[in-house]
Write a structure and sequence with these properties.
The protein is of the alpha/beta class. The chain contains twelve helices and eleven strands. It binds NADP nicotinamide-adenine-dinucleotide phosphate (NAP).
């Protein structure tokens, strides 16, 4: 039976450690602070930002939720970021994506001070990560490494295959695995004979954004499968395609009108030695690592 890697439990352990660090910093008169910038009214973004602010409150971090109107300009956003960069009570700046079309997202993310870039998206942090220097690493990729380490799964010397090369997930997760001494292959939409490559993986990371894309024939038996994908299924056909006969999924679909599946086909998990389920695998780590990054940024900024 494959081992199910419980992201909820791992995220909860990380959050407890963060809360302890926050208490230790409080004794020194320091309260790490996160500014969350949420532009306009995108329902999914509102939910994400609300849970980030709530996590701050639970763990004792200060948070400031800033909500510019949908009509905000790039210049106004740049002024806001400049103000946050110089505020002493703010250690981390989070700009919730997506931004409205008129805002130049790249220019804005580049304007965030690398030392407050708790999302780890700034080119300076990408460069530090690549150079193996202390860096604020993107939260979801950092969470992948935490899952592997805290589950005592070896990384060093393993063949790791990452499917996906986005700046947010694929590239940084590959770099983190490399820094942990895995032998890393990065695949993407132009990779020839993808299955032949993924079948070599001891650690297979799927960050593609396509429902159930990794099928059983693409997996080496006994591999560790990390499924980063989150894909919503909202039609009966789609749900049956992946979860026919699964009573729990059926109940979720009937209750909510949708359910989610990762980038790995549920049948492929049956071959794994260990795997992260969707939901409840990688997902919960993202906020936990955001909290950890904010505390880390607070300490780094003060030379602690
Ligand atoms: N908290 C979380 O758990 C979390 C956080 C972030 C993202 N996600 C999820 O992770 C998934 C990936 O996100 P992302 O932001 O990295 O997506 P993305 O920016 O759309 O990147 C997708 C990557 O998959 C590759 N790809 C697409 N079709 C492919 C194919 N047929 N064969 C091989 N590679 C293919 C693309 O290759 P090209 O570069 O060649 O186009 C691209 O590099 C999504 O489901 C997203 O919702 C989850």
């Amino acid at each position: 039976m494959p081992k199910i890697l419980d992201g909820v439990a791992i995220a909860s352990a990380i959050k407890q450690e963060v809360a302890e660090e926050v208490r230790a910093l409080a004794a020194l008169g320091i309260r790490p602070g996160l500014a969350a910038v949420l532009v306009g009214r995108v329902p999914a973004s509102e939910i994400y930002v609300r849970s980030k602010v709530q996590a701050c409150a639970e763990l004792g971090l200060y948070s400031d939720l800033i909500s510019p109107p949908e009509s905000v300009t790039t210049e106004e956003m740049l002024d806001l970021v400049a103000a946050l960069n110089s505020r002493d009570d703010i250690d981390g700046i989070l700009i919730q994506l997506p931004l409205p079309k008129q805002v130049d997202a790249k220019q804005l993310l580049d304007a965030v001070s690398p030392d407050k870039d708790v999302d780890g998206f700034h080119p300076v942090n990408a460069g530090r990560l690549q150079a193996g220097r202390p860096a604020l690493a993107p939260c979801t990729p950092a969470g992948v490494i935490e899952i592997l380490k805290r589950s005592d799964l070896p990384i060093s010397g393993q063949q790791a295959v990452v499917v996906g090369r986005s700046d947010i997930v694929g590239k940084p997760v590959a770099m983190l695995l490399l820094n942990e001494n895995a032998t890393v292959t990065i695949c993407h939409s132009k990779t020839r004979d993808l299955g032949a490559v993924t079948r070599e993986a001891d650690i297979l990371v799927a960050a593609i954004g396509r429902a159930g894309f990794i099928t059983p024939d693409m997996v080496k038996p006994g591999a560790t499968i990390i499924d980063v994908g989150i894909n919503r299924l909202s039609t009966r056909e789609d749900v049956d395609r992946f979860f026919a006969g699964d009573m729990k999924r059926e109940a979720t679909f009937l209750r909510r009108g949708s359910t989610i599946v990762g980038d790995v086909h549920p049948k492929a998990f049956e071959l794994a030695g260990a795997y992260t389920p969707v939901p409840g695998g990688v997902g919960p780590l993202t906020i936990a690592m955001l909290m950890a990054n904010t505390v880390r940024a607070a300490k780094m900024r003060r030379g602690l």
